[in-house]
Amino acid sequence: MHIGIAGAGLLGRLLAFELAKGGHSVEVFDPAPGPLPPASQQTPYAAGWTAAGMLSPTAELESADENVFALGLRSLELWPAIVASLGMPVELHRRGSLLLAHRGDEGAARRVVDLLKHKAPAGHAPQMLDAVALGELEPALHGAVHAWLLPHEGQIHSVQAMTALAHAADAAGTRFHWGITVTRLQAGEIHTTQTLRKFDCVFDVRGTGARPKPAVNGQDDGFTPQVRGVRGEILWLHAPGVVLQRPVRLLHPRHRVYLVPREGGHIVVGASEIESEDRSPVSLRSTVELLAAAHSIIPELAEARVIHSETNLRPALPDNLPRVEQAPGLVRINGLFRHGWLIAPALVEQTLKNLT
Ligand SMILES: Cc1cc2nc3c(=O)[nH]c(=O)nc-3n(C[C@H](O)[C@H](O)[C@H](O)COP(=O)(O)OP(=O)(O)OC[C@H]3O[C@@H](n4cnc5c(N)ncnc54)[C@H](O)[C@@H]3O)c2cc1C
Fold first, then answer.
1. Ligand 1 contacts CB of residue 181 (under 6 A)
2. What are phi and psi of 217, to 5 degrees?
3. I need a labelling partner for 181 at 20 to 30 A (CA). Which of 86, 196, 211, 253 fits?
């Protein structure tokens, strides 16, 4: 088939790679200037770049449903083979993740842990750790009192994976049209600022870019109406002396803070979740909350260097759950919210099985 894809974010790249590998002729349109990490925050770019890359089916059950959990488990099975076929190194681990709480925060932490125990199937529920067990797993974490292990979780380096997916899709024959905005689409058609293109099937994976725009000449512009952006802020630390093996979440009564270790002595600290479409730089309040929480569980982070901060919008639908709409000649996937990296491979697998 001749396939047109609107959007070269996480879903667009993954779809292009899988479809091109499967022998289809694939073209992708995106306003970004190219496949590499964005040089500045001046224009909107894919949320996929900003994500911490936690692959956390159980922890996400706090706000997601069993479908997201099942998609997450399936994606955890799929990621190793995808990464192995990309032809570039991508950091991917499956060493579990940790939930931590300070003394005094037991009430809030127990509520979350009980909820996860209730929603997660046997074998995936949080396992309580004593101080000795925690010290053996993560010697750096001596600032927390209560700890639980989620044994089946993982992480992926989102920046490396975005880069490698575009590279592999390109090598498999995908034609990327960078710097091109899709203004309208419908079954079998993609309209850009420059041209109208016809395809056997069109994929709309524009994330927050699929929001309604004012109608041009009274025409329905074919956008997904209810998509909204949910602001998320992250900070990158360079802390080569601090060794963490797996992602860690602090269960705090007022906010959730996580630390995700990346190779090269980096730690991603995130993330705020604010009902706002403001893409302006990270606020002082979020910086203080995120870094104070990180420091409270690893005091040695005091000397870490803050090397990068970033804001982006998670594409979300009103129920905060993913949605696939599949009709002849047109497939729309959106609402991956805070689970994109967790569920994208399984969503793509399911969607392509139904492609006719
Ligand atoms: C701070 C933060 C932390 C996160 N952490 C995690 C995490 O730890 N784990 C996890 O699983 N997920 C996480 N996520 C969520 C994840 O990044 C998203 O769910 C995922 O990126 C959504 O993928 P997508 O392809 O739908 O959208 P995007 O990745 O946003 O891609 C959309 C693409 O469409 C393009 N586009 C927009 N408008 C147009 C147009 N008119 N024409 C053509 N192209 C267009 C954009 O340029 C972009 O390239 C996080 C997100 C944020 C912001």
1. yes
2. 50, 35
3. 86
Calpha distance 171→252 (Å, rounded): 45
Beta-strand runs (E) in the chain: 2-6, 25-30, 54-55, 92-93, 97-101, 127-129, 146-150, 154-156, 175-178, 182-186, 189-192, 196-198, 201-204, 228-238, 248-251, 256-262, 266-270, 305-316, 323-327, 330-334
3-state secondary structure of 140: coil
C-alpha dihedral, 321 to 345 to 314 to 327, nearest 10° = -60
Ligand 1 atom with minimal separation from the 271 CA: 1
Q: 308 alpha carbon to ligand 1 midpoint, in Å?
A: 19
From atom 2 of ligand 1, which residue's Cα is the shortest distance away?
Answer: 51
232 in contact with ligand 1, CB cutoff 6 A: yes
CATH no. of 97-151+229-315: 3.30.9.10
Q: Report pLDDT digits (tens) over 205-248.
A: 999 999 866 655 555 555 677 899 999 999 999 999 999 999 99
- pTM for the structure as a whole: 0.96
Domain map (residue ranges) of the chain: 2-51+159-227+318-353, 97-151+229-315
What architecture is domain 2-51+159-227+318-353? 3-Layer(bba) Sandwich (3.50)
Q: Is 31 in the pocket of ligand 1 (CB under 6 A)?
A: yes
